[in-house]
Amino acid sequence: MKSTPSVRHNIAANFAGKAWRGIFGLAFVPIYIKLMGVEVYGLIGIFMSLTALLALLDMGLSATLNRELSRLSVAEDSAQESRNLVRTFEVIYWVIGFLIGIVVVVLAPVITKHWINSPNVSNEIIEQALLTMGLLLAFQWPGTIYTGGLRGIQRQVLLNVVQGVSTMVRHFGAVLVLLFISPSIVLFFYWQAFVALFTTIVLAACLWKSLPKAEKKSIFDKGLLVKNWKFTSGMIGISVMVVLLTQLDKIILSKMLTLEMFGYYMLAFSVANVLLSLVNPVHSALFPRLSQLVAGGSEAEISEVYHKGCQLVSVILLPVAVTLVFFAEEMLILWVGDPVIVSNAHMILSLLIIGTVINGLMTLPYTLQLAYGWTKLTLYKTIVAVILLVPLMVWMVQMYHGIGAALVWIILNVGLLIFEIPIMHQRLLKNEMGKWYRRDIMLPVLVVTLIGYIAREILPADSSKLVMLLVILSTCILAFVASAWATGNLNRKAIDLLKGNNR
């Protein structure tokens, strides 16, 4: 394998890429709502849910490719196996993408008639939008395997450059289409489909060029599927259960609420989901590194990298999360400005953020489990959670609508926090659980929560937007400093983690 960039470069590139895509995503939401309306924006929410649901078809292959290419990168004479592995998974993903497009097109009339509830948007427009969603999903889907491959060989700087340019073209182009051709959701999805196809082709070229040269031509090799079946099968189960777990609220809400009310929920979800974008760069950079250490490193070294990652996640995630929880209404005022949207979405946003921040803090323990190839714990916990969650979600949505769904999201993640960590540390990094709870998580949570509460209390009533902005920024900065202090030696550890020799 070619020499890979350092963990420092990968984390920096992942954060820059996530920030770039997150800023664009949030910045353009008010524009889309203004041009097309919040009810039509609900159709974009439907697409987001469809995309997540179709992750069921991922079958764990992208995670398997990521892990195996990471392992092969430190193995001798692995070029042919690496290229055959990519070819094998590539064929499977393109077939799946083609089938996805056909299924969505066939089901579009059924979904329009029997699922989506919209008194103001015609069934014809909804059906046409769903048809173009099918085209978009078919083009977008194969890109998943190339993304996983580039992460596995730690070409994450290149990956983020491609994704960043794609994001810019996707959003700016969509606005130009909506402004100068027609404010049509159908044209919006056609543009997204064109950009998705181009991006997938570029990602494919980047991955194949980055792989090591081999003497023979790459081939589809069923033996590689058999060889990696144990890990892949675990990831299949995890993918199915996690997608169901995280998308049940959208499935139930899209049926039980009007398209307009669903649009408010998805608006709040799009903001809360940014928190996971802050965590994913650390996961993406440390998963290959931990996989390499598990393959040949000492437990002490694994523990060190694990705790560094957990503390880094706390410092990155908690200040933003606490600020959003305490100032959700003010943030929506500054962002969208529409009092109707603010009134309908701010409480949902606060609750979703609480659940999402707990979920984000669990990311590195999940990363560690995958690095060890241990998938059963995540699989079993999600099966139990889905069984319990369905009736609870239906009941809470009937009682409290979108707020009920957000409350269930909190209950779910609190349960995972209480039960998963002790079970995990009975097998992996024994005697490290106390340090994770106390130093990595609980102390910084308490400190930043106190700062957020005090800031909320001192914000004057009927403040101007400038005052709101200053208080919000000050709160986030103070919370960041406090969380860094609360994790003790984080500054030294973070510098160690980001050194160029951590490969």
The first-to-last residue Cα distance is 13 Å
Largest sheet, strands/sense/barrel: none
Q: Mean of the pLDDT scores?
A: 80
Q: How large is the share of residues in beta strands?
A: under 5%
- Which residues form runs of ≥5 with pLDDT under 50? 498-503
Question: What is the tally of helical segments?
Answer: 20
Helix and strand string, N-terminal first?
HHHHHHHHHHHHHHHHHHHH
> Which bin fits the share of residues in helices?
over 70%
Q: State the total count of DSSP E strands.
A: 0
Structural class: mainly alpha
Can you walk me through this structure?
There is one protein chain. This protein is mainly alpha-helical and 503 residues long. It has a domain at 1-237. The protein is 83% helix and 0% strand. The chain has 20 helices and no strands. The chain has helices at residues 7-36, 38-53, 61-72, 79-114, 123-140, 143-152, 156-180, 185-210, 222-227, 229-256, 259-272, 274-296, 299-326, 328-335, 339-361, 363-371, 376-425, 433-458, 465-486, 490-497. It is globular and about 65 Å long. 48% of the residues are buried.
